[in-house]
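Dear support,

Our group has been running a series of protein-ligand predictions, and this particular one with 5-O-phosphono-beta-D-ribofuranosylamine is the one our PI (initials K.S.) wants archived with full inputs and outputs. We had some confusion internally about which version of the output was final, so please treat the block below as the authoritative record. The input we submitted was:
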Amino acid sequence: MRRVSTSSEAARGRLRVAVLLSGRGSNLKALIDGAARQAAGYELVGAFSDRREAPGLAFATAAGIPVAVFEPRAFPDKAAYEAAMFGAVEAVGAELVVLAGYMRIVSPATVAAWQGRLVNIHPSLLPAYRGLDTHTRVLADGGSVHGASVHYVTAELDGGPVLMQVEIAVLPADTPETIAARLLPREHALLVAAVDLIAQGRVGLAGEVLSVDGRMLERPIALATPSPTAARSDHPARS
Ligand code: GRF
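Confirmed final output from the archive:
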């Protein structure tokens, strides 16, 4: 069956998305797979890394997505590095930048220049556990619920408004490794769902206040848990 697009979709076209990563790139791979769906509202226009040896870049190369590497040590300072990196992102016409395992803090000036067009995926239920080693920290605290968040990036580390989250239970026998293994596929579904929602033009950001479909978002959208009987159904629950 042919997909019938609405006039607004046709006018908008697919959202042009760039991904920044430093390592494994499983979230990039999830976005690549997501973009291959006929109904996807976004396309990937580039993968950018601060590390030449980042394994995840191979996913982009295999999918025919342009790849560029900017190593900070090749630049006199962070401002010059980011000017080159984000200049290249701009040059591919990116409308949204996704930080997916990008292990550097983006400077306030760059954050300001990309405000509302820069999102990050973080492995915790923000505002809990900003920063690193989130799985270890939730276990050390005896937490029973953990998860991941997609948020807009602000100058405050992992502090920007959260669009969407996915929860998992912490189990008695969990280790950081078992949590990571269980959470990662849910992160992938979360990131694709969040980028889809943005690509549909349904998300607004005014200052640090998010809206979806014109209504202020009072709490992050919760990604629905897939039913064990249904085929994959990673549609976000309505807020
Ligand atoms: C993910 O856990 C993501 O939440 C965090 O860094 C990790 C990146 O994994 N920001 P990958 O490189 O996408 O596999």
